[in-house]
Amino acid sequence: DVQLVESGGGSVQAGGSLTLSCEVSGLDVSRYCMGWFRQAPGKEREAVVVVDSVDLTVYAESEKGRFTISRDDGKSTIYLQMDYLKPEDTAIYYCAAGARARMYTENNYRGFDAWGQGTQVTVS
Questions:
Q1: Helix/strand/coil (H/E/C) assignment for every residue in 61-120
Q2: What CA–CA distance (Å, rounded) separates 66 from 14?
Q3: For residue 91, how far is the Cα from the chain centroid?
Q4: What is the pLDDT of residues 13-38, one digit of tens each?
Q5: Burial level of 20, CB count in 10 A (0-12/13-18/19+)?
Q6: 64: pLDDT strictly greater than 90
Q7: Which tens digit of pLDDT belongs to each residue from 105-115?
Q8: Residues 6+ apart with CB under 8 A from 99
Q9: Cα–Cα distance, 38 to 91 (Å, whole number)
Q10: What is the mean pLDDT of the chain?
């Protein structure tokens, strides 16, 4: 079975940093498109950033320069380094995988068919 388990969420003051981790089992992360998504209360789920199997990345415009995705294939883990956090970054953050997934914009993505349970990030 495929499992994605996020960790690293928490509460932080505006301007601070957090690093999220997503441990993956049941698939080879180096062969998949991996992504981070978030959903704030009352809002649709949106894409934050994805990285594909050849390390091409796509970031949502509002996260460029603040967030960084990375992948450790040996540990089968995806990371999201978040810096200069803002209150509007408050959301549940999800990790997802898809063999032929794509992200076009933060609200336009497809093909992510394996999801984690999410981790809460609160910025005040």
A1: HHHCCCEEEEEECCCCEEEEEECCCCHHHCEEEEEEEECCCEEEECCEEECCCEECCCEE
A2: 13
A3: 12
A4: 999 999 999 999 999 999 999 999 99
A5: buried
A6: no
A7: 999 999 999 99
A8: 31, 32, 33, 111
A9: 6
A10: 96
